[in-house]
Amino acid sequence: MKRYDLIIIGAGPAGLSAAIEAAKRGVKAIVFDENPKPGGQLFKQIHKFFGSKEHKAKIRGFKIGEELLKEANDYGVEVILNAIVIGLYMDKEITVQIGTEILHYKGDAVIVATGASENMVPFPGWTLPGVIGAGAAQTMMNLHSVKPGNRVLMLGSGNVGLVVSFQLMQAGCEVEALVDAASQVGGYGVHASKVARCGVPFYLSHTIIKAEGEESVTGVSIGEVDRTWQVIPGTEKHFEVDTICLAVGLSPMSQLLSMAGCNMQDTPGGFVPVCTARGETSVPGIFAAGDVSGIEEASSAMIEGRISGLAAANYLGFITAEELGAAVNELKKALQSLREGMFAPENRGKVIAETEEGIAVSHNLLRKGYLDEPEILRFPGVSKAAGIHPVIECTQNIPCNPCQSACPKKCIVIGEKISALPAIDPEKECSGCGLCVASCPGQAIFLVNEDYEPGWASITLPYEFLPLPAAGDEGIALDRGGREVCRAEVTNVKAAQAFDHTNLLTIKVPAEVAMKVRFFRGLEAELWAK
């Protein structure tokens, strides 16, 4: 039996972060993970993170994973892959299956960071090939470069459903519809908007009736639901699809903690251990971090992991209680900032009618996934100044502020509270550099110049699709709901290293539609779609 100061189960964002913090303090740590690659969900996440600089905002998930792996390696953390931990006991002994062997390890402390598993929804035909989880679709696309299907229906409008819908389109799939039994979009409005402007319709208060097909999915029927979640007769709709993607929530993988005798509790978010704010369970020396103790974003999981790593180091005698307290207090501030705003844990399930600034929330955004033009003018990030200026269509209090630090002219103001709505400082003049457009994780910032030429305006928008258009290309300008507005000409394309693959596409449109146009589709894409 091999012995370590600290055993960590799970090499995802929480587990690696815990290992790094503990190893920094001299703890001999080992990490086990059942997957062939470390990093957990991070390597599926090709989108940019929200938050602030301390939360690794505007960095893509897989790059954060690479940074964590390098840091863990630099501090001498041992990572064992293809290792399934099948037992955790009160004396902090674990049994691990590696290949055909069952091995025993003993830790003076254990951190469980096993994450969560995808939920499924049963309906007639749900076992047909072609019905997959959103996480599985991400794995296929972003880890193995395999297209999950050609025509996809997404069930679930939380952040996972919205983000994966966009990534499906980036992979060349057609997303036929986004469906949710809830009456309003569950995820960030900026995520919904970038899906809607691509032309994907939202069917809220709808559910899947059945998947169709004999040997695999060939279609799907959905219907509107009433207040008792029953399908309303006569509301059925049919889509010809070959893939049904399910993004209906996650369940903490907490079985090992229960096996170890930790006190557990049933919560709306799943069966989780009873923990202190430092991740300490009821069993001394056993800690929990990340989604296993409650579902949140990966940014939160990384901070929780760091806190648990420090708490384990203190338990093992590598740092004092005073050192622990000082470090954890700073981390708690960072964690709390991620838990503020409309999507704070205490607001789950509530209908938020106004922003923290007292501005009415867009009803159209919640029901259809995009802002209606008259609604957008009431938000502080939207102005119609002369010359080139940013238009920020971020209208919910979400924890994110990269645009504020990205602007060299200080045109964009959020303030110290990162969940505040971004505002435009009318005293500052925009240079048109586009750094704010590229830095926005929600792709919600546009540069508008209604004085581009007499009778013409230019719109600079974020673009993350291939093939990348070139200056001189013609196409169709689309509005926030993905509807055709007019023909448009590409006048400029910027692809700088600082933009991190968020290309800046500038198109020329009639001046009167400058506040309508928010996306561009090339003529080749139009012909392909038909």
TrEMBL record:
Q: Which residues form the 4Fe-4S ferredoxin-type domain?
A: 420-450
State the PANTHER family in the record. Answer: ANAEROBIC GLYCEROL-3-PHOSPHATE DEHYDROGENASE SUBUNIT B (PTHR42949:SF3)
Q: Which Pfam families did the record assign? A: Pyr_redox_2
Which UniProt keyword terms apply here? Iron, Iron-sulfur, Metal-binding, Oxidoreductase
> Which Gene Ontology molecular-function terms are recorded?
iron-sulfur cluster binding; metal ion binding; oxidoreductase activity
Where is the organism placed in the taxonomic lineage, from the top? Answer: Bacteria, Bacillati, Bacillota, Clostridia, Eubacteriales
The cross-references to InterPro entries, in alphabetical order and at most eight, read: 4Fe4S_Fe-S-bd, 4Fe4S_Fe_S_CS, FAD/NAD-bd_sf, FAD/NAD-binding_dom, Metab_Enz_Cyan_OpOx_G3PDH
Keyword Oxidoreductase applies: yes
Q: What is this protein called?
A: Thioredoxin reductase
Domain of life according to the entry:
Bacteria
Under SUPFAM superfamilies, the record lists: 4Fe-4S ferredoxins (SSF54862), FAD/NAD(P)-binding domain (SSF51905)
**Species this chain originates from:** Desulfosporosinus orientis (strain ATCC 19365 / DSM 765 / NCIMB 8382 / VKM B-1628 / Singapore I)
